[in-house]
Amino acid sequence: MRRGKLNNISLILVLIVALFTLVSFVFDQLVVQTENKIRDIDFEYERSFNTYLRAKGVLFNTNDLMYRAKVKHENFIDRSEILEKAIYNIKFNKNYFEDNFNDKFDSDFNKNLEIIFLNRYKSMYLEIFDEASDLFSLSRGLPIRAMDESIFSSNNQQVLDSMMNLEKILNSNIEYYEKYKEFEKKDIINFNDYLDLRSNLRNFLNYYSTSHDSFQKIYESYSLYYSYYGGKTEEFLNSLNEYQNRKNFYILLSVLAQILSLFFLLILFKTLLNIMNHKKNI
Predict the structure, then answer these.
(1) Domain count along the chain
(2) Which of 47, 87, 230, 242 has the greatest CB tally within 10 Å of its CB?
(3) What is the per-residue pLDDT for 278?
């Protein structure tokens, strides 16, 4: 009876060792599958994070260009108002000139001032052209790429339209340049001549200022893209952490199963030794 009981114990121990060995193997396979999943998620995370960084770069650069266009426009407006007021008072406001400059309205001093301020006013054309050219060069350097997700198809079109509009505004001012060449050679004799010059420069300045609206549309489109991939990046990162924790948990259970398998294997070995000793004593 005792010998049979021991044999049964040995059989049970063998089954327990086999069970924990199988459990360890199962968890090892789960670790392998989890590692594959981690590699897939890590690839998507890197792709999403890189897209997120590109969108962030576009946002920051576009915001800078948008702010530059606004500040430059305000600066040109302020300067034009000062020059327009000076030209009006010097060339067309006799009482103001003679009261403030203590000289005759038709003096050489007056004529020299007229030439100086009119030339400065006309030169604003060239400054706006130069600034528009610089702004266009910077806008061409924006790291803009097509937004891959289908939900951004309309935003892609808006960005494309905005870039085309920027090229039209900032790089193709042929019409205004031709007008500038006319006014550059034209003498401003009467008040209507001055109003024509003022009107054309203000129109050109307002035309330049619409670049701000194009930059703003690009900024708005990429803000959505930035937020979308920021959310996806966070999702992938959370999944990555979750699967990494799951992998560590599987490794822990596999090691624990191996320890238990080894523990019961030692018990089995001891039981077999006891059986052999018992047989010898008999």
Answers:
(1) 1
(2) 87
(3) 66
